[in-house]
Amino acid sequence: MPIPWGGSTMSARRLTTRRVRTLAATAVVTAVAGTAFVPATASAADKPGAPLHMTIGAPSPDGPLKRGGATESMVLTVTNSSDQAQDFHAWLNGTAKGPSPLLTDSVVFDVAALDAPATKSMVGRQDGQWQGLFYPASGNASSTFKVPANGKLTWKVTVGLGAHYPTNDSDFTLVGSGLGGNVEADPARNTVVFKTEPEIAPGKLNTSWKWDGVTARPGKRAGLVLTTTATGPGEFPAALQRTVSARTFSGGADHAQFILSAGRRQDRPTESS
Predict the structure, then answer these.
(1) Does domain 35-196 match CATH 3.10.180.10?
(2) Which pLDDT tens digit goes with each residue over 96-106?
(3) Strands (E), 127-214
């Protein structure tokens, strides 16, 4: 199956031996390293008027981040406006501007307590998104902090670009959130956009099908060519992977699915409903 890439065409066999100018992962199927965290839709639990308010201060030192270079730190504050102590379960969602999803080692991440209980942090991925989590050192990743009534807790959050931050991505955006529906969502206070250096104009990942014009019927196959084209500079840090699912148009059951990984087919069963 020919796979045009960046304006040139190469066979699937050559694609497996070339140093990864290929796709890292997609929104459909992702080869995940590290811990799976919360679904990306969990941030919908944040709501206006909630008792907890999260604020992320300006990064210091302020400047573009370089791959494998210096980090920047900021103060994250959670304030409780209610007369009762509130549980706080924090997570930070990170996205890159560009076609390549982030892997766990794409971003350097650490959280240290300032005016809060001793804290541990970790990184994972879920639904194709990078996530940073921090929690009480005395517990585990599912443990929560207790924010006192009419009080606040503060942490120092440190962020940098890993040496393997995708070269076809640019700006990195970090959004603070909380689970449990008791944190007010305000992008003006809980969002930080880090510029990257060198500055690039990210390309896009385009996928298309081409039909050979043959009508499929019993004993006769139709051909489809799947083409994935990357525009823009840089490389994807891992091999191409796509999930292909055959479905009927008459409401019948789905047929078997398969994965294209570096141009090779791997069968996988259809998920039961």
Answers:
(1) no
(2) 999 988 999 99
(3) 129-136, 145-147, 152-161, 172-179, 183-184, 191-194, 196-197, 205-211
